[in-house]
Amino acid sequence: MKFLSSRINNFIDMVSKLLIGMLIIMIAILIVIILGRYFFAWGSVAIQEFVMYLHATIFMLGISYVCRDRSHVSIDIFSRNYSDNKRIKISIFFDLIFLIPFSVFIIYISSDMVFASWDIFEGSGESGGLDYVFLLKSLIPMSGILIFLSGISNLLDNFVKLKS
What we know:
- The protein is mainly α.
- It has one domain (2-71, 82-163).
- The chain has helices at residues 2-40, 45-69, 84-120, 133-137, 139-163.
């Protein structure tokens, strides 16, 4: 169990490092867009859409990192008084009842839309925009897959903690 959890965690860490690089690129491009617009009266719809694509990628794929590290917003009004053992059991319960089914739902509900988008190689509705909307929509099931993997990793880690 620990081996599989470690593999999943390493994969999510690799994705998060890639996302950090994308964030740096996105910030650099935003600076270029702002300077170009205000000092040179220059702008590009394609570059602005590229920033939107980077932002969507960082957000959609970064969710799995947040789920795995439990760094999301949570209200621990009741659980702060619980023992570690009880917190682990509650975490297992919520992962099994909410996180994993939600991730499967995301994959299921978005699959038809993504396949339809790929069938026509859906592009931007803006003139001069990027013709890669089909890739952008592919982030939705990819996000579901990564959330599922982070949920499995959490479950495995919690089962190991529960046994020890």
